[in-house]
Amino acid sequence: MSRSSTELVAILRGLTPERAPEVGAALHAAGFRTMEVPLNSPDPFDTIKLLSQTQRDCLVGAGTVLTAAEVDRVHGAGGRLVVAPNCSPPVIRRALELGMRVFPGIATATEAFNAIGAGATELKLFPAATYGSRHLKALKSVLPKHVRVFPVGGIGAQDIAEWLASGADGFGFGSELFTPAYTLAQIETRAQGLIEALRAATK
Predict the structure, then answer these.
(1) Phi and psi angles of residue 81, each rounded to the nearest 5 degrees, phi first
(2) Sorting pLDDT into bands at 50, 70 and 90, what band is 91?
(3) Catalytic residue among 49, 124, 140, 176
């Protein structure tokens, strides 16, 4: 994937089934095509099902996936994306067995190579803000070239260019984009701001 098509993942922690259709539509309109609903949200499987049904050209799935059994439930709800805060080989292997995309959470080279050893080719650097873009650049220098790394946690629109320069292949945005307290208008504005910042950084 080229820089011009850098993937942005919407992390919708706290999203409810009632708001899922309108929030999903707003994010889609802004340009987001990948959405995850963390499993510590209210009724996450119902929300995933609704998003997958209403945003058919988007990749929808779950975050904070900790067990292989949860992978099965996400798949059953129509999700095709699994994101974890940690590196769990059973989660990685089960997601891949089901043909899902999987982003295990890593911070160190050891965790990254454990994830790669389990079959992962896409990694979530988490929490990104506390490690910084120089940490990513150092990691990328030893990782296989085909492995993609998405910084997640504490990154805002103003940080995108710096992280891209250090080798980021995409980003996940949580509270920078969505919290249950945000109005639909605020979500739309934040989504558009992130998309515009990415476009400016990749010109």
Answers:
(1) -135, 135
(2) very high
(3) 124
